[in-house]
């Protein structure tokens, strides 16, 4: 039988337990992952990944082969399973948690044990769901987020390392720069702290989306009433005590609810355009149930529907109300959920507020429906996020034949092209006279919309979504009540061209309970004009309507009543009476109106601006009044207002006119609204207007002139407010300027191009001039300019070459005072914000030459502010942006196999101008550990990550003088040593620490080169201080806790080794390499480096020990040649061994290696001091044996006698074998301390 290397079968999972009871058998447990090296007739040879050192054979039938990726050569191949990253992570996490979970049981931590068990079971179940492959993409995404949230929660609770991730997937540290990795860690840490105790993520996504929609589908109604039923669903905010949506109607026939597929669309709706403020725990679904039938309901209606419907007239009567809080939907994550809620009844007169009684639990006002078969209303709901068009594209089936139920009011964002023209009228309540009767009336209100001639406007009334438009609407009837409250909202969709002549008429009828043809008798009416004489639409709010008596419908004609006052407000100014109708002085009806229109306004001042061509003489007054208008009113009519302003702004040939200044003032006022958090989401609206609707080709000249005028007037006036507003609005002002110029160029064949560029440069020069000097009055104006200027340059790239714009940007930054002390802190902050925005813009990323120009200027200013430690957070953000971009470009170079010399030049500038200052800044602030320290350290390591041999050579050439080079190296060595010794990053940021260590390891290799070349050649050039600092740094790096792999769990150790190898071993060989070049200068490090090197050799890594133990031979040999003995090495080695072994370092394997390697070296080299050396090595070996014996019994009362024995052995060794009196005395005192507690006073004395 021949064993052959496997080619495809490289990785598998054990599906059975196997004892390995054959020769060379490898025992396996279910779930063990194995790497397969060879195969032979149904058997595999390989190793379990949990212990790679033990190889063996196992049956192939026990292994499930999994696809994998193989990297490296045969001897050093790395196998990575090709499975979903989240599945892979879950597998590794369950293995790691398993051992910890068992220890929790042993340690009797019951609560944590049970909690972790529950989470582990959830993870196993969810992992199984992922592996089935039956989930949709949305479900997969949600499940992965849920899994990673559980993992992060568990890691935090168990004290394990933070997993940096983007979304649900772990990040690969090698795929991003150190600064990006730092940002990911910050975000992951924030997300992890936002995980709840149940291990679920507290959602933050909804805060980023401005618009939401609620899908509702009625599934069943558990009450058979025997009459036609109408159920009106609406959204209600209990905190504001008002409905926030119009109503949605579901009709149910007298036969009962039919949940057939073909009828589902009529049972479903989407409540659209809900804002973040609408989705709160105070929002409820309210279902008003009304029956259509007889005035009085009886149980007999259920039995015989013929008698109940025999009447020619049916009445709409209140039946019950159901209430459901939607708080649970807010955390549903987009999943559809089903709910059941009961219907309650109350008195007819309280029907309008019954929902409020139920919410406030005023149980004496309502009771559940008495029928034993009623189980209420069943419905399902789902929250959808994003703009309606986008949601419609993502869910086409959901929107098929479904009615949309709109919000009462505008959505948070109104896009150009969004046309809405709805007037909502709520019939609130009425006050009617009894008319000499003992019982109250049964009043039904009929709503109609007519024109001036009395012609009915058809299909413009909507009692609710889910029903067709109608020509008239009848309200419900409150039984025998003269003060009915209806609270019914109706939507009017009157065509805009008919608004001016349209009016609403409310007809009041008394309904008799008798079954006769004329059981609805008209007794009065009210009316309301939809548009006021001024041209403004009916005002929002409550209106108390006057009631006019009329008993016959034929007498109702607009000619007779439109001249009469319609409301109590009008009555004061219009006391006209009529011979046809008499006004009822004690009767009235209250309605409430709300206009939701993008074409009709209720504001007279805004209307006069929009209709400026009709009355041009009123333009000045209109502009002045628009300045004090509410911003909400302006943004609703944004497109029309802007069109009007640009039409007024200039003459037909593009020249200024008398109104240009005021128009510019109004335009600035509107644009400054976009900086208000309340209106910032209208920026996409403005962008859409500029791209698709803006058509003023001649305004660019006047706009440039106006901006220049503001810049030149800065120092001439104390009132800076208007100029500040202008500068804050520069981004959109220049968008208008550029777009206007494009329109003009397309229309004229690019005429006056040179003139336009001269005007442009003239404006920019004026802006730069105002930055030269700074004083308190103009400082805020300068700050406003700096915050906006980057966006201006972004726009200028559309009309000027990138290099030219970069030069303009550099000139602007250089125009500021050149000394940091001359800049107030607020201006410094604004300047750095401008730089940050520039390095994130096209100027920096789209062209090599423009980036080079900008980078030189930015680095110069960064250096200045780093030196003064101004705004370090902003400095680190700028460097992060620069370093991230250059790193990504370098990776693209590697992928494409191309070399971009400009990137080398960029890095050369960064290295020359910022590296030394960054090192100095970190060195100064590291002891104070300010919050910005982590970001600056990430920038420093990120910069070192980008530098290659070429950049270091350039740096050494720049530092050609010996003193500057020495100072730089000393600062670099010191700051790196402090970084590896101090916890700059949180303890659980292991991925970040490992990535940083990998960069530091590479940097140390390069930093050692000038030591060898410039500080070694002769005695006069040798610098002991620099070399000592290097060795101290190397030892500190190698012995730092983050690299002690043997203290890690098996899973964690495997991850680190597969990614980076053992960095201690690499550092050890680097130390050995540098040490070997010292030659005669080795004597300078005796005895000072004996202790540090001994600490290196004690690290429990066999290859490292084998390599570095040779240093002691070199030390002994060097000291022997210089001083004739190696007493210093001997003394220091014994002292430090005693201390380090007491600190729990070293083991018996080290003792054997120390003895074997050094004795073999002495035998091989055969030095003159061979005999003394062999004796010393043997003596130290015996000392090690005694120290290890002593350490093994240092704890526990049962080891007290052994401790005494070991202490006696040690003190005898120090006294008799090596004659070290001070060490002998130390252990005499230790022996005394052992005898006293044992009451051995004679021995202690």
Automatic annotation (TrEMBL):
User: What keywords were assigned to this record?
Assistant: Cytoplasm, Phosphoprotein, SH3 domain
SH3 domain boundaries: 7-68
Cite the C2 DOCK-type domain residue spans from the record.
420-596
- Give start and end of each DOCKER domain: 1215-1245
Q: Name one GO biological process term.
A: small GTPase-mediated signal transduction
Q: Which GO terms describe its cellular component?
A: cytoplasm; plasma membrane
Q: Does the keyword Flavoprotein apply?
A: no
Subcellular localization, as worded in the UniProt entry: Cytoplasm
What the entry lists under Pfam families is as follows:
DOCK-C2, DOCK_N, TPR_DOCK
User: What SMART domains has UniProt attached to this entry?
Assistant: SH3 (SM00326)
Listed GO MF terms: guanyl-nucleotide exchange factor activity; small GTPase binding
Q: Chief location of this protein?
A: cytoplasm
UniProt lists the family membership as follows:
Belongs to the DOCK family.
**Record protein name field:** C2 DOCK-type domain-containing protein
Annotated organism of origin:
Homalodisca liturata
Lineage of this protein's species?
Eukaryota, Metazoa, Ecdysozoa, Arthropoda, Hexapoda
């Amino acid at each position: 039988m021949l064993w052959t290397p496997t080619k495809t079968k490289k990785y598998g999972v054990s599906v059975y337990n196997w004892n390995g009871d054959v020769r060379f058998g490898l025992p396996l447990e279910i779930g063990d992952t194995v790497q397969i090296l060879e195969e032979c007739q149904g058997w595999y040879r390989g190793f379990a990944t949990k212990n790679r050192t033990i190889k063996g054979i196992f049956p192939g039938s026990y292994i499930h082969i999994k696809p994998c990726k193989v990297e490296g050569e045969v001897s050093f191949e790395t196998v990575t399973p090709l499975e979903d990253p989240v599945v892979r992570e879950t597998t590794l996490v369950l293995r790691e948690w398993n051992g910890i979970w068992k220890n929790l049981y042993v340690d009797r931590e019951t609560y944590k044990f049970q909690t972790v068990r529950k989470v582990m079971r959830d993870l196993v179940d969810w992992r199984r769901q992922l592996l089935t492959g039956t989930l949709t993409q949305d479900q997969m995404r949600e499940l992965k987020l849920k899994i990673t949230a559980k993992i992060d929660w568990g890691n935090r609770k168990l004290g394990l390392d933070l997993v940096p991730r983007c979304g649900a997937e772990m990040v690969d540290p090698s795929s991003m720069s150190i600064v990006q990795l730092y940002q990911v860690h910050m975000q992951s840490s924030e997300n992890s702290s936002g995980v709840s105790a149940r291990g679920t993520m507290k959602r933050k996504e909804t805060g980023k989306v401005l618009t939401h929609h609620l899908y509702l589908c009625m599934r069943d109604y558990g009450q058979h009433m025997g009459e036609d039923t109408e159920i009106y669903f609406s959204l209600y905010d209990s905190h504001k005590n008002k409905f926030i949506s119009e109503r949605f109607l579901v009709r149910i026939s007298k036969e009962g609810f039919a949940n057939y597929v073909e009828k589902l669309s009529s049972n479903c709706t989407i409540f659209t355009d809900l804002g973040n403020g609408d989705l709160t725990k105070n929002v409820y679904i309210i279902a008003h149930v009304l029956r259509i039938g007889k005035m009085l309901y009886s149980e007999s209606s259920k039995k015989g529907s013929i008698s109940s419907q025999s009447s020619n007239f049916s009445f709409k009567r209140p039946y019950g109300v159901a209430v459901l809080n939607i708080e649970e939907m807010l955390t549903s994550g987009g999943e559809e959920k089903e709910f059941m809620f009961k219907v309650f009844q109350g008195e007819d007169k309280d029907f309008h507020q019954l929902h409020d009684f139920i919410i406030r639990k005023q149980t004496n006002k309502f009771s559940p429906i008495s029928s034993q078969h009623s189980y209420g209303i069943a419905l399902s709901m789902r929250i959808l996020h994003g703009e309606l068009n986008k949601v419609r594209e993502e869910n086409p089936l959901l929107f098929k034949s479904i009615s949309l139920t709109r919000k009462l009011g505008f959505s948070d964002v109104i896009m150009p092209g969004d046309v809405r023209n709805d007037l909502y009228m709520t019939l609130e309540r009425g006050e009617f006279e009894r008319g000499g009767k003992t019982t109250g009336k049964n009043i039904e209100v009929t709503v109609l919309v007519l024109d001036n001639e009395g012609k009915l406007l058809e299909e413009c009334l909507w009692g609710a979504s889910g029903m067709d438009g109608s020509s008239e609407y009848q309200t419900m009837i409150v039984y025998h009540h003269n003060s009915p409250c209806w609270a019914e909202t109706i939507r009017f969709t009157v065509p805009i061209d008919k608004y001016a002549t349209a009016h609403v008429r409310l007809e009041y009828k008394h309904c008799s309970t008798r079954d006769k043809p004329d059981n609805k008798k008209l007794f009065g009416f009210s009316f309301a004009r939809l548009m006021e004489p001024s041209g403004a639409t009916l005002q929002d709010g409550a209106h108390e309507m006057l009631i006019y008596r009329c008993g016959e419908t034929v007498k109702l004609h607009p000619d007779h009543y439109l001249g009469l006052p319609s409301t109590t407000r009008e009555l004061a100014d219009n006391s006209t009476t009529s011979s046809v109708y008499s006004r009822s002085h004690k009767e009235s009806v209250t309605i409430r109106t709300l206009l939701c229109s993008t074409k009709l306004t209720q504001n007279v001042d805004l209307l006069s601006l929009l209709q400026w061509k009709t009355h041009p003489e009123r333009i000045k007054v209109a502009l002045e009044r628009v300045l004090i208008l509410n911003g909400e009113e302006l943004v609703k009519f944004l497109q029309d207002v802007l069109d009007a302003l640009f039409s007024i702004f200039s003459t037909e040939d593009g020249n200024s006119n008398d109104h240009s200044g005021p128009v510019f003032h109004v335009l600035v006022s509107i644009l400054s609204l976009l900086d208000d958090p309340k209106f910032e989401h209208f920026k996409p609206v403005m962008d859409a207007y500029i791209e698709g609707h803006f058509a003023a080709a001649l305004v660019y000249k006047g706009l440039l002139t106006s901006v220049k005028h503001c810049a030149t007037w800065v120092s001439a006036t104390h009132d800076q407010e208007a100029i500040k507003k202008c500068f804050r609005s520069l981004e959109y002002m220049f968008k208008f300027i550029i777009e206007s110029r494009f329109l003009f160029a397309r229309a004229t064949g690019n005429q006056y191009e040179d003139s336009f560029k001269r005007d442009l440069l003239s404006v920019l020069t004026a802006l730069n001039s105002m930055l030269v000097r700074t004083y308190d009055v103009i400082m805020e104006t300068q700050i406003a300019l700096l915050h906006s200027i980057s966006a201006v340059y972004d726009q200028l790239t559309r009309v000027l070459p990138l290099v030219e714009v970069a030069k303009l940007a550099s000139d602007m930054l250089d125009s500021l005072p050149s000394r940091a002390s001359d800049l107030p802190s607020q201006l410094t902050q604004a300047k750095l914000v401008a730089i940050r925005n520039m390095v994130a813009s096209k100027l920096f990323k789209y062209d090599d030459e423009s980036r080079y120009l900008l980078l030189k200027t930015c680095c110069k200013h960064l250096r200045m502010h780093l030196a003064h430690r101004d705004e370090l957070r902003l400095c680190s953000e700028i460097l992060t942006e620069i370093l991230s971009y250059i790193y990504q470009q370098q990776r693209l170079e590697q992928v494409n196999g191309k070399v971009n010399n400009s990137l080398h030049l960029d890095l050369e500038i960064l290295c020359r101008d910022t590296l030394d200052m960054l090192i100095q800044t970190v060195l100064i602030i590291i002891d104070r550990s300010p919050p910005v320290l982590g970001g600056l350290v990430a920038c420093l390591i990120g910069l070192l990550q980008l530098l290659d041999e070429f950049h270091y050579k350039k740096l050494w050439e720049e530092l050609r003088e010996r003193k500057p080079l020495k100072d730089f190296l000393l600062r670099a060595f010191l700051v790196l040593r402090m970084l590896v010794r101090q916890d700059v990053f949180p303890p659980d940021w292991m991925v970040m620490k490992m990535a940083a260590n990998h960069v530091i390891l590479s940097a140390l290799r390069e930093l050692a080169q000038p030591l060898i070349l410039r500080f070694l050649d002769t005695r006069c050039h040798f610098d002991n201080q620099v070399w000592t600092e290097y060795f101290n740094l190397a030892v500190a790096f190698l012995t730092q806790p983050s690299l002690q792999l043997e203290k890690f769990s098996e899973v964690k150790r495997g991850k680190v080794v597969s990614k980076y190898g053992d960095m201690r071993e690499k550092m050890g060989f680097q130390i050995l390499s540098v040490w070997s070049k010292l030659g005669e200068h080795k004597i300078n490090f005796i005895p000072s480096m004996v202790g540090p090197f001994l600490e290196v050799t004690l690290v429990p890594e066999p290859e490292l020990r084998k390599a570095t133990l040779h240093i002691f031979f070199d030390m002994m040999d060097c000291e022997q040649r210089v001083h004739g003995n190696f007493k210093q090495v001997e003394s220091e080695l014994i002292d430090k061994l005693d201390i380090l072994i007491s600190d729990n370092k070293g083991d018996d394997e080290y003792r054997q290696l120390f003895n074997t390697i050094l004795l073999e070296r002495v035998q091989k080299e055969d030095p003159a001091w061979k005999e003394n050396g062999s004796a010393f090595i043997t003596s130290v070996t015996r000392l090690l044996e005694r120290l290890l014996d002593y350490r093994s019994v240092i704890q526990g009362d049962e080891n007290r006698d052994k401790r005494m024995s070991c202490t006696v052995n040690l003190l005898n060794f120090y006294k008799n074998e090596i004659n070290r009196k001070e060490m002998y005395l130390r252990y005499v005192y230790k022996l005394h301390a052992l005898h006293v507690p044992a009451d051995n006073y004679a021995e202690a004395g």
